[in-house]
Amino acid sequence: MSRLKEGDIPMSVPLNKADFWVQVHDIPVGYFTTENAERIGNFLGIFIKVDDNNFSENWESFMRIRVCIDLGKPLKRKLVLQKEEGVTFRVRFCYEKLPSFCFLCGIIGHAESHCPHKQRGYEVTGERPFGPWLRATKGAKQWKENKWLVPAGKGISSDNKATSANKEDDMRPSTGEGGLSPHERGYIEQKRRRVEDPAVH
Fold first, then answer.
1. Nearest CA to 101 among 133, 65, 125?
2. What percent of the chain has pLDDT above 90?
3. DSSP, res 133
4. According to the UniProt entry, where is the signal peptide (predicted)?
5. What confidence tens digit (pLDDT) does each residue in 85-99 have?
6. Cα separation, 102 vs 128, whole angstroms
7. pLDDT value for 29
8. Spatial separation of the C-alpha atoms in residues 134 and 37, rounded to whole Å
């Protein structure tokens, strides 16, 4: 649940919402900005803040944001976003410390065996629309030594739209050095020389 603030009355705090750290994967280099983090956070629920580590030199391969989520709604899985030049890209979400949730309806708080849809005779065939892949496998302190996220930069279109899980292609994080700026490639090359030549300090 959400943390109580000074002056809050415990009995008056709603129990239908909770705060989560959400990892946003498959964002292109150059689009790790606070503006984009806030837009994505408000799609997931209510944006609270972005992890300060996203702006350090210990960046991982995902953006980490704090979001208040409505427990009465299905978990969000993926989102299609549009770049400034009109090209679209898709991001996927992983939730840290995610409790029990239903693989059938995506609601937190019950398993599939107790899903109201199933108890009403809802026929279940094929792959479930939700699954364990929504749980984050990495925690907050597992970061790599690179610096990509900046406080301001390229934006994404506000014409965002969610897509159905059965219409999404498999998404794989991009790898390699393609699309990096000369400054970023020079930084990587300098790190390599230091590793390969112990005499370089």
1. 133
2. 40
3. G
4. none
5. 889 999 999 999 999
6. 10
7. 80
8. 18
Is 117:40 a contact under the CB 8 Å cutoff? no
CA pair distance 13, 6, nearest whole angstrom:
12
Q: What mean pLDDT is reported for the chain?
A: 73
How confident is the model over 2-37, as pLDDT tens digits? 566 676 666 655 678 999 999 999 988 888 889 999
Backbone angles phi, psi at 88, to 5 degrees: -100, 155
Mention every residue, 6+ apart, whose C-beta is less than 8 A from residue 37: 24, 47, 50, 54, 63, 65
* Buried b / exposed e along 67-84 (16+ C-beta atoms within 10 A): bebebeeebbbbbebbee
Q: How many residues does the chain have?
A: 201
pLDDT classification of 110: cutoffs 50, 70, 90: very high
In tens, the pLDDT along 126-153 reads 889 999 999 998 765 554 444 444 445 5
Which amino acid appears at position 93 of this protein?
Answer: F
Radius of gyration of the CA atoms of the chain, in A: 20
Q: How far apart are CA 72 and CA 45, in angstroms?
A: 11
Structure tokens at 63: 């953006």
d(CA 69, CA 145): 31
Q: Is 58 exposed, middle or buried (0-12, 13-18, 19+ CB in 10 A)?
A: middle
Between CA 127 and CA 170 the distance in angstroms is 14
